[in-house]
Design goal:
The protein has about 425 residues and is an alpha/beta fold. It is about 35% helix and about 15% strand. It has 16 helices and 13 strands. The protein has a seven-stranded parallel sheet, sandwiched between helices.
Length: about 425
Amino acid sequence: MPFKSLGLHPSLIRAIKELGYTEPTPVQAGAIPPALLGKDVMATAQTGTGKTAAFLLPILHRLLALPRGMTRVLIVSPTRELAEQIEDVCRGLGQHTPVKSILVVGGRPMGPQQRAVRTGPDVIVATPGRLLDLMNQGIARLDRVTTLVLDEADSMLDMGFLPDVRRIISRLPSREQTLMFSATMPPTIASLAKELLRNPASIQIGRRSTTAVGITQAAYPVPEHLKTALLRHLLRETEMPSVLVFTRTKHGAKKLARLVEADGFTVAELHSNRTPAQRTKAMEGFRRGECQVMVATNIAARGLDVDHITHVISTDVPDVPEDYVHRIGRTGRAGAEGDAFILVAPDEEGSLARIERQVGHRLPRVTLPDFDYSSTAPKASPGAGKKGRPGGRSQGAQGPPRSPGGRSGGTGAKGPPHPRRR
């Protein structure tokens, strides 16, 4: 089904073609028609399925029929990085329209945002804290907002933003349409949806809290003290064009980034100890492909939308299964394929079992014969990351070989991925 068949404005169809969109994803095909009619929408879909365009396209279409000069749409997002990406997509889709959008987020100077809000933009994309600041100052006047979007609603709950969101909603007297998008549907979010939405169109893509099709998963059992050594071994010995590495703490991320960089890789860091400017620079460099490896905390589990990520590696097992789902959703986006590896210490097997129950299958275990699990350091010397090795894949991982196409299917249930030699 082409986008044109959805009845979108020709200016949006033109932008869609220029941006390389071919046809609507399932969540877009399900959400756009009722949103165009002005209906409330409750959409649940895995990360990487195109939720942002699913709400932006009908919003932009409807705005084109209205006068300019006042804010009619408010999009609330849990993180600054995600808000930035939403506003960037909004600009791209609306590039051939007069619709104006602005960004209201913390970590950036207040003055320019105050001035931008006063101009009466059509769309405000905001994080809750900074938006409430401007509302309390009497600068952000949202009394003419008719459409509210709550993106990554479950994440806003997890991050403690629900009271702020309720305060914001209470000050939207003209709200006519609410669009709620979430990757998971915990009871609190289901209750909030019932409270806020009026006879909504309900779209659910895939089983709740499952991982996207196209992601091959595997678990690598390893003693805790050898996790860093195994990660560096995997990076040196496996073909990984674009890698996102998750660590539990910001201090661990900083230390690991330095070690990986010492192996000859270009590395970016993304965690709360980085300044807003540093975080923006890191994300832009990773998105442009200037950095092969991004080392991050969970700050990137939802706020990072980079199409070309081929591998996601978790150096710890998240205590909350949904965090794992969101982490690996950074790869295999919009129908692409990707690999997700998780390094598992013996005392983390219980947490991994909870994740496996959540996603509905057991992750294949992989043991590498050319890695010394009794050693305290990897055998390969630093600097090998750039040199690489000739030849095909390693045949050492346990489990059946990959299919001729190079990947073994959507969820990894067909067997563990064999690391591809450099």
